[in-house]
Write a structure and sequence with these properties.
Blueprint (H helix, E strand, L loop, with lengths): L2 H21 L6 H5 L15 E5 L4 E7 L2 E4 L5 E2 L2 H13 L2 E5 L27 E6 L5 E13 L15 E9 L4 E4 L26 E7 L6 E4 L8 E2 L8 E2 L1 H8 L9 E2 L6 H4 L5 E7 L3 E12 L2 E12 L12 H28 L4 E3 L1 H4 L10 E2 L9 H4 L10
Antiparallel strand pairs: 1-2, 1-6, 2-3, 3-4, 5-9, 6-7, 7-8, 8-9, 10-11, 10-15, 11-12, 13-19, 14-18, 15-16, 16-17, 17-18
């Protein structure tokens, strides 16, 4: 055999051996290559115009309406923008922690069955289907959120009321291609109830800022609480000495009613004033020392089984009264100019808040509505008669039994 042919055979044999070694090498598991990669790579969150969250019992739709994120299930009331932004960012940054091998029959153990069309007997094994759609309702991405991954407490043997217990430390999800993945984040916020997606900015007025409060309603005595000066306690207009004294605790309750006030839900706009009781409401009005005027109209309870109430809110602004005897000089004029700017700012803020709230009927939990419904008689503590109760009331009945 010629030397050149021998060399060619050796080279060919080496190539065949190399190819055999390469093809017979241990193959990495497909899931290992995915660890650390994004679950939804290149997700165009700026194109997302609608988020649909589907469970076995409900379909929640968050959508842009006139450029603003709203809750479609609540008549397009503004949605919590920060929560939506955080949720989209979380989905776009979510990475594969572990790929789970699970057959279709095993996915129910991870609550990863599709909620759409599921049989009633398997509802508890269904997940939450997330659909991200564009302005033309085209599907951008979809994901199925399953049960959280529960990590055991550091000391599993610890028992009693101070035991830590297991805690969520990840979430099982399923991608559009059916792959089951464990991610490091918990996605429970994306599975919240519809009410938790409503923008919660409402009314927040510190009690110390309120100068006067009026409460009026049919068939009840009006209330007019007034501060003579900033920082002074409230007085009840028309309170006579023989009626009693002002109950400070009740006054604090009514004056603090607007402090971090939150609503529970939105009522249907189709409800009539007669149905909500807002044709003859309790009207609560509070004016602040800065000039804002908050008017709440409190209606009926929702049903006979709940004390939650229908409420409407309006906000206005009126410049606080200035003393007539102020000296006029250059310094005063400068202060007046600054006050004018501040007044214009507060008037604009009041208008923005009013425009956002005035067209809606809100639902207030009973404990939040209670301070607005305090009656005038409840604000007054009866004065004890001099010397306390009459002696006759405390006199014991004499023993009239015959002597032995």
């Amino acid at each position: 055999m010629k030397t050149r042919n021998l060399i060619l055979l050796v080279v060919l044999a080496g190539a065949l051996i190399g190819w055999a070694v390469w093809t017979l090498r241990p193959q990495p598991k497909p899931g290992i290559a995915l660890i650390g990669t994004k679950v939804l790579p290149n997700l165009p969150i700026n194109r997302v115009n609608k988020i649909v969250l589907i469970t076995t019992d409900n379909t929640l739709t968050l959508a842009k309406f006139k450029g603003i994120w709203t809750v479609a299930n609540r008549f397009n009331y503004p949605a919590a923008f920060d929560k939506i932004a955080d949720g989209l960012l979380q989905l776009s940054e979510m990475k594969v922690g572990q790929v789970i091998t699970a057959s279709e029959s095993q996915k129910g153990a991870f609550n990863l069955l599709n909620p759409v069309g599921i049989s009633p007997g398997r509802k508890e094994q269904a997940g939450t289907r997330v659909e991200l759609r564009d302005e033309n309702d085209g599907l951008i991405a979809t994901l199925l959120i399953g049960k959280p991954f529960m990590r055991a407490s550091p000391d599993g043997s610890m028992q009693g009321p101070l035991a830590f217990g297991n805690y969520p430390d990840g979430q099982y999800v399923q991608t559009a291609d059916g792959r089951v993945i464990l991610v490091g984040q918990t996605l429970d916020r994306l599975t919240d109830d519809v009410k938790n997606w409503l923008a919660n900015e409402f009314v927040n007025v510190a009690a110390n800022d309120i100068q006067n409060i009026t409460v009026t309603a049919p068939d009840r005595a009006p209330i007019n609480l007034v501060r003579s000066k900033n920082g002074e306690p409230f007085t009840l207009e028309g309170l006579k000495e023989e009626e009693g004294t002002l109950d400070t605790a009740k006054v604090n309750q009514i004056s603090g009613a607007l402090n971090i006030l939150g609503f529970d839900d939105i009522a249907a706009p189709t409800l009539s004033p007669k149905e909500t009781g807002l044709e003859h409401p309790v009207v609560f009005e509070a004016q602040t020392r800065q000039g804002q005027i908050y008017t709440l109209r409190i209606g009926n309870t929702l049903t006979n089984d709940t004390f939650d109430r229908y409420v409407q809110v309006a906000v206005a602004w009126k410049a606080p009264a200035e003393p007539d005897d102020r000296p006029q000089d250059a310094k005063t004029n400068t202060l007046d100019a600054a006050k004018a700017d501040e007044s214009a700012k507060r008037a604009d803020e009041a208008k923005v808040l009013n425009d956002r709230l005035v067209t809606w009927t809100f639902i207030l939990k009973s404990y939040r509505a209670e301070p607005f419904l305090i009656k005038r008689t409840e604000l007054i503590k009866k004065t004890e008669p001099p010397g306390g109760p009459k002696n006759d009331d405390r006199r014991q009945t004499p023993d009239t039994r015959p002597e032995d």
